[in-house]
Amino acid sequence: MSYRIVAVHVNESRHLIERVNLAAQVARDANAHLVGVACSGPADNYYMADLLGAGAAGLSIYRDFMQEQCATNLASFEAAADKAGVPFFEKRVIEDEAGIALCLQARYSDLLVVGQPDPDEAPPAQRADMVEYVLMHSGRPLLLVPYAWKASAIGKTVMVAWDGSLEAAHAVSAALPLLRNARLVQVTVFNPEVGPNAHGEEPGADIALYLERHGIEVEVSRQHVGHQIDIGNAMLSHAADIGADLIVMGGYGHARFREVLLGGVTQTILRSMTVPVLMSH
């Protein structure tokens, strides 16, 4: 497997260039086509206005504004992609809310690059749970870029957070093009349980063998985490300890409602990530 089409979300965020630079690196290394996707439709709550009165005129003005905003943002994307030396790239505007538009584009892409929501930003054409929505409904892996992250090469030291779940298996398969180029791939199992349902008799060994048969040299680390720290923060701490520049993991192995209500690993990573994360549901 290799990436042939990499799509990146293009919006008015001040973190856009870092996101495009990362997408450009992945596309350039894979000799893939890069698609910059801007979304011009309003978020769902905009339609709560009176569309038969003043709201209708307001919607027309809003659409014109968003078209102009998309053109400006895509010009920034084009300049960054060209500067990064991406041989094949294109610009695309989808007239829909960002979550729905990105799910549409994801059907025709191998990898979708999106930004971690910045709490200091509130893009007008973006639902508050856009990342979670796209993760759950796109059917494609997401490469999530932290808003505090500054552009640098990724994929040299990769931590694969393995729990034996279907979501983690999807993420590992989706990450193969990146893992093949890594200097170090560490399969990390947190609080492993020996048994037939997930980890087997030697936790991490089966997925390590799978990766080795794909030509990827790996090491396995088993981390035992006490009650004083949750798994999500333990993952981020361990990633920092080994100098990982990329985390690969499954997203929402439990029901999303349960994670939002009770807290969970996916919610912690989406909120507190410090390095890019390739996540798949």
Automatic annotation (TrEMBL):
Pfam family, one: Usp
Xref: InterPro entries: Universal_stress_UspA (IPR006015), UspA (IPR006016)
Domain (UspA): residue spans on this chain: 156-279
Record SUPFAM superfamilies: Adenine nucleotide alpha hydrolases-like
Signal peptide: none
Lineage top rank: taxon: Bacteria
Protein family (similarity comment): Belongs to the universal stress protein A family.
Protein known as: Universal stress protein
